Amino acid sequence: MSKKITRRDLLNGLALGTGAALTGYPSVNWALAPSVAGQRIMDAPSASAYPPTLTGMRGSHPGSFEVAHALAWQGKKPATYKTIDEHYDLVVVGAGMSGLAAAWYYQKQKGADVKILVLDNHDDFGGHAKRNEFHHQGRMVLSTGGAVQVDTLSGYSEMATQLMADLGIDEDMIEAMQRQTPKDYMLGGQMQADVGLSIKGEGEHVTIGGHWLKFFHGRGDYVSAVEALPIPEDQQAKLIAFFGGEEDYLDDLSLLEKWAYINATRYNHFLIDRVGLTHETLPILGAHLSVLNGPSGWQHTVYEAILAGAPGLRAMGWVTNFIDSAAAAVLDDLSEIRMFPDGNASVARLLVQALIPQVAPAMNGISDVAIAPFDYDALDEAKQNTRVRLSSTVVGVKEMADETVQVDYVKNGEPLRVTANHCVLACYNAMIPHLCPEMSDAQKQGLSYGEKAPFVFANVLLADGVAFSQLGLTITQCPFDAFQWVVAGPTMTTGGYAPPRTAADPMAVFMMGSPTPADDETSAARDLFRLGRHKVYATAFAEYEQNIREQLQSLLGAYGFNHETDIQAITVNRIPHGYAYWYWGLDDPEWEPGQAPHEIGRKQFGRISIANSDSEAMPYMDAAFDAAFRAVDEQLA
Known about the structure:
The chain is of the alpha/beta class.
């Protein structure tokens, strides 16, 4: 069951203590000032009580993973638990999109009187849909710490579409979101906006503007753009010929041989063996594959890479028309992608407010979701039927003889136990065998097969946007840097947000990086994901900060940028367990229907069901919703 990459894949991945500043750098100003958001004036919330404003190391932050790692790596967990006087109709493990949706579906079907508890090991809800919120010079500056975009609803299932509609996100709202997004903001679905390419030469970065996603496919003035790259002339010539489709690089193969070749050959082998590119040139073509999917062109087949938007559309003879039309569909359909100013965190906020209205009683839904104050103390009040309990790591889930489910977890070092009639596990697939050791070996193996693709998304608050504005674009690719994409923070007004209005306003810079090794020519993707995850955990905040400062200084220094004075705060969202694993043409066999690892792994386990994007083998928000509906449906059948 090889993963069929579709036109959704080009951008749709954009689905994790505070470190010390580097020696010699001035202290970062973490202070929060009053904020102006739209027409509403609100005091900046206390960071200790409001996780979105926390800076430093976020995502898989200190305190969120240690208990789980002790269980998974060493088999260690508490021997005894304090049973608290709480029994629920449903306990959900995981407050990401799938977990919140499971609670929503259950409440919708059973009524507001049912008792639901959602447990999560992080100090914030939303899973990968993390909100990063800065306050500076009287303004709120928003950005996303993980999952970025809302895809066109036409690809959603009926149940996922209904969930979105009930939250206020329907086709009319999708169209409104487009109108609320500036025409120069490509990440928000405005595909006519330029996409730059920035390469560090002997000194500072050289940024070549224009629309490189189109240049890659022989559209626009790609010749002049390639000739401006600081690479050898022979490599420029080969790129120009490749982009323009000046020859059929597979002309020695028959039609059937060509089809077999593009489905069995590593994309980078094609670029080296057929196109004549050097290893040094490969990152220029593969950076977006790494950011969007995790691995580089060494782990993609030619077919997978091209359908994900990589160059090569016009260079294969008989497949040219088919591939070119597919790539055009990729580029054109991205215009249907939309974005909230805090990414999919707004969707998580809408779900939480629907479940627990007390967290934001004055919120008016979509119209002010981006700026509404949220009271995190109201998430877990005893008087309400649905509760979200954060900083609570589940270590055991077991069906009991009395037809209840026993759920053990650790909160602030204290081992606790609750019971429920049903349980939905909306957490990381590979953790479930450790929570439910009674499962069969076959189910455990199915759950453990896939490896999530790790990512690191950083947000940097700048005192103003003067230097960045002189790039002349809102996004640029940096294929030879630690963060391969550098993007202006969200500029749309969706949800009541007032983005930076002029270059003099404070702004956020959103930086996206893949820690998966990009130079391994033979390893399977899931093996490289493990290495990338280890790298994420082994990299200190100080090293991330140094990389960020050096990259931005080199990128923007020519425009007067000074990282020592212009950078006001840094948030590093590390996502070691990132995108759900899909099946790769080079690594995974074709399974019979129902026999793929994710299908075996997600089998109902008595009063326990499994809901997460892992269980759908698709790293999309709607896949998480579909899994949640399936799990709740199993428990209510």
